[in-house]
Amino acid sequence: MKLFSRILASTAFVALASTAVFAEGEAQDPTVKARMELMKSVGAAAKTLGGMAGDKAPFDAAAAEAAKAAMIAAAAEIPARFEPQASDPASEAKPEIWSNWEDFVAKGAALKAAAEAMDASTLEGVKAGMGAVGGTCKECHTTYRM
Ligand code: HEC
Predict the structure, then answer these.
(1) Mean pLDDT of 45-49
(2) How far is the CA of 121 from the centre of ligand 1 (A)?
(3) Which one of 36, 42, 142 would you pick to mutate in the ligand 1 pocket, going by the greatest count of ligand atoms within 8 A of its CB?
């Protein structure tokens, strides 16, 4: 009996621990995983550009142009990757995305337009451009990300 309850307790612990891992980390649903990967690439491009804009990294025109291109490409993918309303405990997507779909798509297009408008050939251009780009991230996250 004692052994049994110990097994029970350890099973409960494992279940609890894995729930915590899922909640904070990797999504299991492939559709959710793909859209989170897409956002991670947006985040990576923003980190490269933001590092230069904030004088935390030296300006590198080739790297800035590459990050800009990656951001535009990722932004263009937003509607396709988010359209299926998949869910996962690790997801931070709000259901309002699908009830306000047109608005969500418009906010994705705003990111794409801001990235396209950025002059990545100069540090001044990246600084000015990242202000606008950052605003579009915030606009969408405030409404559609938990
Ligand atoms: C059109 C809306 C929209 C725009 C614009 C947008 N995001 Fe997101 N972002 C989301 C949503 C929704 C999620 C949550 C997705 C999920 O968890 O299923 C998210 C999640 C993320 C994540 C977490 C990814 C992960 O690992 O779970 C990062 C990082 C991120 N966004 C960065 C950015 C940055 C940086 C920008 C701007 C350059 C940006 N996003 C612009 C909607 C947007």
Answers:
(1) 98
(2) 25
(3) 42
Q: pLDDT band for 26, please (50, 70, 90 cuts).
A: confident
Q: Are 129 and 113 in contact (CB under 8 A)?
A: no
Higher pLDDT residue, 91 or 11?
A: 91
Round the average pLDDT of the chain to a whole number and report it.
89
Instruction: Determine the distance separating the centroid of ligand 1 and the alpha carbon of 96, expressed in angstroms.
Output: 14
Residue 113's Cβ-count burial label (10 Å; 0-12, 13-18, 19+) is: middle
Cβ atoms of 98 and 46 closer than 8 Å: no
Percent of the chain with pLDDT strictly greater than 90: 82
* Secondary structure class of 145 (helix, strand, coil): strand
Ligand 1 neighbours by CB, cut-off 6 Å? 32, 35-36, 39-40, 42-43, 46, 78, 91-93, 97, 104, 107-108, 111, 133, 136-137, 140-141, 144-145
Q: Is 103 helix (H, G, I), strand (E, B) or coil?
A: helix
CB of 101 closer than 8 Å to CB of 39: no
Q: Taking the domain 29-144, which CATH number applies?
A: 1.20.120.10
